# Entry
Amino acid sequence: MVIRIVNHFSPNDSHDQRLFNAQCVADLNRFTLNWQTPLQLAAIRNDVDACRLLVQAGADADASHPMGNSATALQRACFYSNYDAAKALVSLGASTTVKDASGMCAFNWAVQFYGE
# Structure
């Protein structure tokens, strides 16, 4: 399945995000230059509709890059305090127990970075 994301990101986004925005995404779990999947970018943006669409289209809710930052979409949503995306990801099957390279799960990210 090929999904084109059009005009989803603001003009102030990084070069990597603009490049991603302009491409057809053939692999929903492909990582950008910043080690982020389309689902992780949607979680960072708190875009619940995009999260649902991507997971329903086959995106791996628990994908994390094997090198560098190993955060999942749920961990990124928690880091950015994006509760709507976090709630949607959990309802879509994202694991709450997956740990990043430092041994922290999504709950730890929410508490460590925001105390919530």
